[in-house]
């Protein structure tokens, strides 16, 4: 029986999957608590469940997008790209990844500004600074930049083998 050797990249991707699963589970738990508080007699009514669910949704979207890039499940111009010759297709895909990367860098920079500004404001019920939620912008965009770079490198690796 041979042991599967895991690289740091495998561990990173597994960690991202676990993180996303925990966020989703948290959203589910907070929504169930809110629903029970609203409709079940004698169950404590809580007002913070909706705020926390929305906060987790922002994190789910930005971290989940990196997983979509890693699995090549993001929106692309597949019809146009797949109609090209394989030698040209590689360069078109790298150019698309470059454009995506530039946009993600701008999102990262804007996210940093949003985090700094957001620390001055708080959610009304939970009293959590909005900057913690806005932190999903730079973290998620950094993760997406990382996956975009890996995808671009993979395009050249597969053609050389």
Summarize the structure.
By secondary structure, the protein is mainly α.
Question: What can you tell me about this protein's structure?
Answer:
- Helix 1 runs antiparallel to helix 2 and helix 2 packs parallel to helix 6 (136-160).
- Helices cover 76% and strands 0% of the residues.
- It has helices spanning 8-39, 49-70, 78-82, 86-118, 130-134, 136-160.
Record field, number of beta strands: 0
Residue windows where pLDDT falls under 50 for at least 5 positions: none
Helix count? Answer: 6
Total separate domains? 1
Radius of gyration: 20 Å
Report the helical percentage. over 70%
Give the percentage of residues in beta strands. under 5%
| Shape descriptor | elongated
Q: Helix-strand pattern, N to C?
A: HHHHHH
What distance separates the N and C termini?
A: 28 Å
Structural class: mainly alpha
Describe the largest sheet. none
Would you tell me the overall average pLDDT? Answer: 89
How is the topology of this model organized?
Elements: H1 8-39, H2 49-70, H3 78-82, H4 86-118, H5 130-134, H6 136-160
Structural descriptors:
161 residues; mainly alpha; 6 helices; elongated
């Amino acid at each position: 029986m041979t042991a599967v050797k895991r690289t740091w990249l495998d561990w990173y991707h597994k960690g991202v999957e676990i993180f996303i699963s925990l966020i989703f589970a948290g959203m589910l738990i907070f929504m169930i608590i809110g629903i029970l508080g609203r409709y079940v007699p004698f169950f404590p009514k809580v007002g913070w469940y909706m705020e926390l669910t929305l906060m987790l949704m922002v994190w789910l979207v930005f971290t989940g997008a990196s997983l979509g890039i890693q699995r090549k499940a993001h929106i692309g111009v597949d019809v146009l790209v797949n109609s090209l010759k394989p030698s040209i297709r590689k360069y078109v895909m790298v150019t698309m990844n470059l454009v995506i990367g530039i946009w993600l860098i701008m999102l990262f920079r804007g996210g940093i500004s949003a985090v700094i500004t957001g620390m001055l404001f708080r959610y009304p019920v939970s009293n959590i600074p909005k900057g913690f939620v806005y932190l999903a912008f730079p973290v998620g965009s950094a993760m997406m930049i990382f996956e975009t770079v890996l995808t671009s490198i993979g395009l050249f690796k597969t053609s050389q083998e």
